[in-house]
Amino acid sequence: MTEFSKVILGKSLQDLQYKDVADFFINEHGESNTIEFKAFSATHGNFKENIKGVIRAVCGMLNSDGGLVIWGAPLGVADPVTKEKKFIGALAPVPEYKEKDWLINKISDSISPLPTGIRVAVLQQGANENLYVIEVESSPYKPHQFDNTYFVRLDGQTKPAPHYFIEALFRRISYPNIEGYVKIDRAGLLTGQSLYYMDITCFMFNFTQMQNEEDITVRLMTDPGYFDDTSEFTNNSKNYEISKLHFGLVNTHRARILFDPYQLDAKGKKIRFIMTYTGKHSPAKSSIYTIDFARVDLGNAANTGQMLVQMEENVLFSERQERLGTTRESTLQASLGRTPDKF
Fold first, then answer.
1. Into how many domains does the chain fold?
2. DSSP bridge partners of 237
3. Which residues, at least 6 apart from 113, have a Cβ–Cβ distance to it below 8 Å?
4. What is the per-residue DSSP string for 280-297?
5. Which of 36, 123, 154, 268 has the greatest CB tally within 10 Å of its CB?
6. What is the pLDDT of residues 158-214, one digit of tens each?
7. What are the residue boundaries of the Schlafen AlbA-2 domain, all occurrences included (predicted)?
8. Residues 237, 115: one domain?
9. Rounded to whole angstroms, how far apart are CA atoms 314 and 171?
10. The domain containing residue 8 runs over which residues?
11. What are 105-137's pLDDT values in tens digits?
């Protein structure tokens, strides 16, 4: 993983301050294939219109070698000789504040297939002066598209990818991009019993056009609760397998989860549901959901939209461990009770 923020700005993304970016533009800088500067400009419309340019830049970097997008940079001025834009001086910050997770979700949801390896720092100086520094890893799932167009970084600019380039990207895909989602179908109280239930459907997709996946193992875990097709009341997990998953087809699996009212109350009626999955050629991912059973509609079992209060879908295990600061050393220390390679 390349820390583009550290290479370009001299600090890791998590250590950046507003002043660091302002100081960076005391000197003149140009764009390259791994860095793009986006000023917030009223001539480009409102926040909704401005963010489209940011998403295009992220899409281009995913399809190229990764890089850094600074949103709130100075307005670029074209060099009279080379016509290349140079960036120096006062910042053009974004007047609207958005939380880091909101921005990551907005970018990810706008790009297909769903990207990983996007990190964001939100830097503030006053209520209406916001900088967004976005670090993008080169994607193993390229090519990606935004607004039905494949973008790429060429000659320091984000441009629609030529046809030959898209074909080359498809040939370079190293493993299928499978994604898993969970939908709550029904929830309520079992007739004549002091047990609650929740019916769910698990969806598995393969979004890689030129590769099928096989030997997929999916594990479902719930806390609290147990699956009704298991014999043990305490069995809160189950596995199922998919032999093959073809591009363009969806695999569905339905399950019913039962809940003891006392267990629900002990957890504040909050349910944590985890779906993990991996295939023969694809890396392990997880989708995690928080469900609030206090919002169940006992009068209409199919009215479940309000129950899902938090979700984080299709996150690579490696990315989740990175967020948690998990390393080889810490894993072995926790498992072995000693420093690796030492007694």
1. 2
2. 221
3. 141, 144, 177, 179, 207, 208
4. SSS--EEEEEEEEGGG--
5. 36
6. 989 888 777 777 766 667 889 999 999 999 999 888 899 999 999 999 987 767 899
7. 31-161
8. no
9. 23
10. 4-172
11. 999 999 988 888 899 999 999 878 999 999 999
